[in-house]
Design brief:
By secondary structure, the protein is mainly alpha-helical. Helices cover 51% and strands 0% of the residues. The protein contains seven helices and no strands. Helix 2 crosses helix 3 and helix 2 crosses helix 5. The chain is globular and about 45 Å long. The N and C termini lie far apart (76 Å).
């Protein structure tokens, strides 16, 4: 990058990046797969820390004021599938906010690199993070009887 070229952060803009991160957390908190992990969490705090990290990854002169990520996520039961779902929501938010492809790639690469610091099973990898398109309902495997034991 030359002095004449704006950084990815400058190309995206602080306001658009902040709006994207806020939208991302709206999706996360409402998501049926991972929303439970965020019950009771301070949304504004998470948005600010995530914005700091994203801005920094895009070349912004922004300091990250949060705890180390491993420490911040240590008590959360985050599994690989949860992590992958979060990545998908992040990707969707970036697309919906029209971030430049180069910025999307940098942010996705950075987020993927954090897997071992965030998850309880850092080597797991799920490639099925989008909603399944089922065309028919599967037949039950066997009958289940509910009721009291006799």
């Amino acid at each position: 990058m030359t002095a004449a070229e704006p950084s990815l952060f400058d190309q995206v803009g602080a306001a658009r990046l902040r709006a994207m991160v806020a939208d991302f957390y709206e999706r996360v908190f409402a998501d049926v797969m991972i929303g439970f992990l965020f019950v009771g969490k301070d949304r504004a705090h998470l948005i600010e820390r995530e914005w700091e990290l994203a801005a920094r990854m895009l070349g912004g002169d922004v300091a990250y004021a949060g705890r180390p990520l491993r420490e911040a996520h240590r008590r959360s039961p985050i599994l690989g599938g949860h992590f992958d779902r979060r990545l998908e929501l992040w990707r969707q938010a970036m697309v919906d906010h029209d971030l430049p492809p180069a910025a999307q790639e940098v942010l996705l690469r950075h987020n993927r690199a954090l897997r071992a610091q965030v998850t309880a099973d850092p080597t797991s990898d799920c490639n099925h993070t989008q909603t399944a398109n089922a065309t028919e309902i599967a037949a039950p495997i066997g009958l289940t009887t509910l009721g009291r034991r006799r």
